[in-house]
Design goal:
single chain, about 200 residues, alpha/beta, three-stranded mixed sheet, 8 strands, about 20% strand
């Protein structure tokens, strides 16, 4: 990153309270992940840090660079027929802290590996815009369900943009999400697939 002209502001360690064990016993349990917070250019002051919001989240103490949070589990985990839809789904609490720390309402948050949509769901809930890139059609369908589940469609300016394999993509606002979600859950016309794949049409 530094070779590309970025300046590292912090590395943050996410310490998992309930990490998955190493079942084979061949390595240490993977109990943490490292987050990199960087700005464009050495000494840059053009970045957002919501110090007071982070302090409020931390019992009015300055937020440290080691965050202790559980991994994604329970009802938050996106599943298909009882099986995890994505092996590395991140918890909403982690993305909430990240976005609250370094973005403002109305900011654009890019996640080029959108997965099950945690970034987009939390960004929309916080009033941020989130252009998304995801190639997997099944994941796109799950994504539509998820942004509706967290109430993103009811927020002014909370917009998710999906881009699939086809050129052009499709911009999804609140009305589009409501329509797609309704069609996916209408067993009468078999429109679920078409509604979900609308996110990939030019």
């Amino acid at each position: 990153l530094q070779d590309l002209g970025f300046w590292l502001l912090n590395d943050v360690v996410w310490r998992k309270t309930n990490p998955m064990p190493n079942f084979k016993g061949t390595r240490f349990t993977n109990a943490h992940e490292t987050l990199i917070w960087a700005a464009k250019g050495r000494g840059s002051r053009r970045y957002t840090f919501n110090y007071d919001a982070m302090k409020a989240l931390n019992e009015d103490l300055q937020m440290r660079s080691d965050w202790v949070l559980p991994i994604c589990s329970g009802s938050e985990r996106v599943k298909v027929d009882g099986v995890k839809a994505h092996p590395t789904q991140k918890p909403e609490a982690l993305l909430y802290r990240i976005l609250l720390a370094c973005t403002k309402p109305g900011d654009v948050v890019l996640d080029p590996f959108f997965g099950t949509g945690t970034t987009g769901a939390v960004a929309a809930a916080l009033g941020r815009r989130s252009p998304a890139a995801e190639r997997d059609q099944q994941i796109l369908r799950l994504l539509l369900r998820r942004v509706v589940r967290v109430g993103a469609v009811g927020l002014e300016g909370g917009v998710v943009e999906l881009r699939g394999r086809h050129e052009g993509g499709h911009h999804l606002g609140a009305r589009d999400l409501r329509s797609a979600f309704a069609q996916m859950h209408d067993p009468g016309d078999g429109a679920g697939h078409d509604a979900a794949s609308a996110g990939t049409r030019s």
